[in-house]
Amino acid sequence: MSELNLMKLQNGSDVRGIAIEGVEGEHVNLTDKAANLIGQAFVLWLEKKCGKKANELKIGIGRDARITGEKLALAAAEGISSTGAKVVNCGLATTPAMFMSIVFDQTKFDGSLMITASHLPFNRNGIKFFNVDGGLEHEDIEEILKTAQNLTPQKNSSPFAENFDLLSIYAEHLKQTICKELNSTESEKPLAGLKIVVDAGNGDAGFFVDKILIPLGANTEGSEFLEPDGMFPNHIPNPENKQAMQAIQKATVQNKADLGLIFDTDVDRMSAVFHTGEEVNRDSIIALFSAILAPDFPGSTIVTDSVTSDRLTFFLEKKLGLKHLRYMRGYKNVIDKCRELNEKGIVSPLAMETSGHGALKDNYYLDDGAFLAVKLISSLAKASKENKKIESFISELPPAGIEAECRFKIKAEDFKQYGKKVLEEFKSRAIKNKLNLPENFEGVRISFHDKNAEGWLLLRLSLHDPVMPLNIEGKTQKDKDAIVKTAKELLSGFELLDTTVLDN
């Protein structure tokens, strides 16, 4: 297999590809052969990282509900076991559980793989990798793929040394976390009297109902799509998907639930719905978890991605007394910055993207949707005892404004270089016009707080595509229109940047 083909499987800090035919124009490139080679290469990488020989390593493999998961897991296991490493089959699991398999006393794996493509359609699949330091970095994946291209596929009729029910161990860990938060025991049914509905989207999150909520006494009537089904027949398991969010909103309201929870396929993301059906995502979910954490971490820093709004900054800093560090997009970027701050002695309890990826300092910096749900449910139970609603935590968060995102195509051959020039000139023009440019780590951000407009915009360059996204938010439609007008003026004259979408 050529380096070119394997390198095309890299997707930031993991591997993604098309694993089965079924979508017109999309052809298989994540094959069993590729998984086999990548498995071998992961062992070679892990040997150097751990300072152990292959036959001293124990590696776990889990998968999500996708129809190609079992065969890819088997192929990867054949590659891994051919090196002499011991492979443990964890079966249906979650991405956070596969990291925790390195932590749990019952497993203590040296490394682990999760076969998943997160929220992508049924024909896609991928591989996420973990070692004791957490998820691998972009450079690590590049090294593994380059190594894999020089290897030969290996066969093994019995690649798994053992099977292990990791999901039950992980669920017990989450269940006991709730009990500890509520100073209770399972037998005391600490969630009795609460009604919580879950939408698993036929992904991997169904266990959250059967193994956590019901044993602790919660009423879960109305929960839906709990059975794993890799064809995802009801909706895409993605909290950001409009159809998925509408489904959990409807289920929450119809069943008069106190809270609705929705997870993505591999359960590293979640979002919530209040009893009114109001969705809690993007700014509001970051605000909610920040409010939950604020009493235990006064004056601490919350790290977010670059597209959070000024209303979130106002809430975090003026209402909660926290600091807001708006960093770069990409959940690994946000998590790494949170880790960096804590290593410097700057307390940062939470790193969270508007996509719903959130990691807690006190949970191994792991983006774990189920663990976030546990924190949320614990806070719900505490609030309920005081006759409060969970939404009271963010009652002072200003209402969302009028948002828009435009994506400008770059027609230049070297799109990155051209995009950088656009950003430099855009910033220069903004400064000449005496506009307000707050501290920013990605692209150019402008805040508007005057008689002409109230809101903000952010122009940035896509990491991988010849596109420049522009995010705009105005407090009212009039504010948004004024900001669009300013954006047009600042973007005029760039012949290789297609801004015609601003005219619509």
Automatic annotation (TrEMBL):
The record's section on Pfam families has: PGM_PMM_I, PGM_PMM_II, PGM_PMM_III
Among SUPFAM superfamilies, the record links this protein to: Phosphoglucomutase, first 3 domains
Q: Which InterPro entries match?
A: A-D-PHexomutase_a/b/a-I, A-D-PHexomutase_a/b/a-I/II/III, A-D-PHexomutase_a/b/a-II, A-D-PHexomutase_a/b/a-III, Alpha-D-phosphohexomutase_SF, Phosphoglucosamine_mutase
Cofactor(s) needed: Mg(2+)
GO MF annotation: an example:
phosphomannomutase activity
Keywords tagged on the record: Phosphoprotein
Instruction: Say which family it is in.
Output: Belongs to the phosphohexose mutase family.
Q: What is this protein called?
A: Phosphoglucomutase/phosphomannomutase alpha/beta/alpha domain I
Q: Which organism is it from?
A: Treponema succinifaciens (strain ATCC 33096 / DSM 2489 / 6091)
